[in-house]
């Protein structure tokens, strides 16, 4: 039975819902991230927002604090799920290297390969492409067997090549790339705003507690949950707030995190920078392309294997065409390099020899002293029934009945 692509996927991803949802290999870290968002919000709703419901009697505005908190939290969690559960821009793997890139180096000496003039296979590991009028080097990925597109990199954690690779985020358990970078930035910036909002509401609640001729310390003792939440939000702002500012800088200069860390100290120009405004428009206003992988598509394994065998046979034929050929004088030479080249082509059928249409001696030639056939033409890959032993017996089916060689019985070296 044919399997779907996600069932035979070679990356380290985790698929659920029949391949409709894709996570990274460290998707369990999502539970930690969700708890870091949900637990403080629950504490805020129970110990702070509940006491603010009646602090704004006009139009029951106090309820808006609770509603906004819940809605904002759901929005942050939704962005987290979209970032983590979608294809970040995985480049499809190839089943074999690009054959059009193969070249052969015929300058290899015979001593390097057992005395044979076998051309060495040469494969370029880098190529140059033009991006915005400037040359950019792209690398060949040994794992995915493709030339990576510009700004693409291979993630060692997910074991995939990802377009516009930014980084692998353990907090969302997924690579951040071309198809989810926008949602990742929304998630980080929204988390920053949520921290600021909770911090401000906790400070407001302490302010209300101080209105009854109470000091700050007494108000803090009266609502320790507010103090804990303010400290938590302040610490979190250093992370998510700093990350938001850093990515604002990256977007304005059209860089990725990977490019920024790799190019430190490098004064090479950024070929992708098109100006601050255009850079922001590229990230937030361009259409997100559909995934290049159809994870629910059926994979015909047998057909792929047959196609692979055909491709291998074609490559072998090309290899044979490129091999430098030359006549050999003695069978002993073939024996010394393995004996494989003793297999002589059956261009004339066995029947033709039985009927005497072909003269065995004239076709091969016989050394009268050594009585060993001398190969005059091209050595092929078919057997004459000879055996590698002390004596070389010729199969009875090959010898003509009236041949004098049949009376001899064996051909000794």
From TrEMBL:
It is found in: Endomembrane system. Residues 401-413 have a biased composition (Polar residues). Its EC number is 2.3.1.225. Residues 138-262 form the Palmitoyltransferase DHHC domain. InterPro entries: Palmitoyltrfase_DHHC (IPR001594), PFA4/ZDH16/20/ERF2-like (IPR039859). Keywords: Acyltransferase, Lipoprotein, Membrane, Palmitate, Transferase, Transmembrane, Transmembrane helix. It is an enzyme of class 2 (transferase). PROSITE patterns: DHHC. GO terms for molecular function: protein-cysteine S-palmitoyltransferase activity. It is a multi-pass membrane protein. One of its GO terms (cellular component) is Golgi apparatus. One of its GO terms (biological process) is protein targeting to membrane. It catalyses: L-cysteinyl-[protein] + hexadecanoyl-CoA = S-hexadecanoyl-L-cysteinyl-[protein] + CoA. Residues 308-327, 389-413 are annotated as: Disordered. The chain crosses the membrane at residues 30-49, 61-83, 183-206, 226-251. It comes from the Eukaryota. The DHHC domain is required for palmitoyltransferase activity. Belongs to the DHHC palmitoyltransferase family. This is S-acyltransferase. It comes from Ananas comosus.
């Amino acid at each position: 039975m044919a399997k779907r692509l996600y069932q035979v996927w070679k990356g380290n991803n985790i698929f659920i819902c029949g391949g409709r949802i894709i996570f990274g290999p460290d998707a369990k870290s999502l539970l930690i991230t969700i708890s870091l968002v949900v637990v403080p919000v629950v504490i805020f709703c129970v110990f702070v927002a509940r006491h603010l419901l009646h602090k704004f009697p006009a139009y029951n505005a106090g309820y808006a604090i609770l509603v906004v908190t819940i809605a904002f939290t759901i929005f942050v969690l939704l962005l987290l799920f979209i970032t983590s559960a979608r294809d970040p821009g995985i480049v499809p793997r190839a089943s074999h290297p690009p054959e059009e890139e193969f070249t052969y180096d015929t300058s290899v000496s015979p001593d390097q390969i057992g005395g044979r003039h076998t051309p060495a296979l040469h494969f370029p590991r880098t190529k140059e492409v033009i991006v915005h009028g400037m040359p950019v080097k792209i690398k060949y990925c040994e794992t995915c067997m493709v030339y990576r597109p510009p700004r693409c990199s291979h993630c060692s954690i997910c074991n995939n090549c990802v377009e516009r690779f930014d980084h692998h985020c353990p907090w969302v358990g997924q690579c951040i790339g071309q198809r989810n970078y926008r949602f990742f930035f929304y998630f980080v910036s929204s988390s920053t705003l949520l921290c600021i909002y909770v911090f401000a509401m906790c400070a407001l609640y302490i302010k209300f507690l101080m209105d009854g001729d109470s000091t700050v310390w007494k108000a803090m003792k009266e609502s320790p949950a507010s103090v804990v939440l303010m400290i938590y939000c302040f610490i979190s702002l250093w992370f998510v707030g700093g990350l938001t500012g850093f990515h604002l800088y990256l977007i304005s200069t059209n860089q990725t995190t990977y490019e920024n860390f790799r190019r430190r100290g490098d004064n090479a120009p950024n070929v992708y920078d098109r100006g601050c405004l255009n850079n922001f428009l590229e990230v937030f206003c361009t259409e997100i392309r559909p995934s290049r992988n159809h994870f629910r598509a059926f994979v015909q394994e047998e057909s792929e294997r047959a196609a692979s065998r055909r491709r291998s046979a074609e490559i072998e034929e090309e290899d044979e065409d490129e091999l430098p050929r030359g006549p050999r004088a003695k069978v002993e030479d073939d024996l010394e390099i393995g004996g494989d080249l003793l297999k002589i082509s059956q261009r004339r059928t066995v029947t033709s020899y039985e009927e005497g249409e072909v003269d065995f001696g004239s076709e091969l030639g016989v050394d009268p002293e050594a009585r060993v056939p001398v190969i005059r033409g091209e050595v092929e890959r078919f057997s004459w029934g000879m055996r590698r032993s002390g004596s070389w017996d010729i199969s009875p089916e090959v010898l003509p009945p009236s041949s004098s060689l049949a009376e001899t019985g064996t051909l000794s070296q």
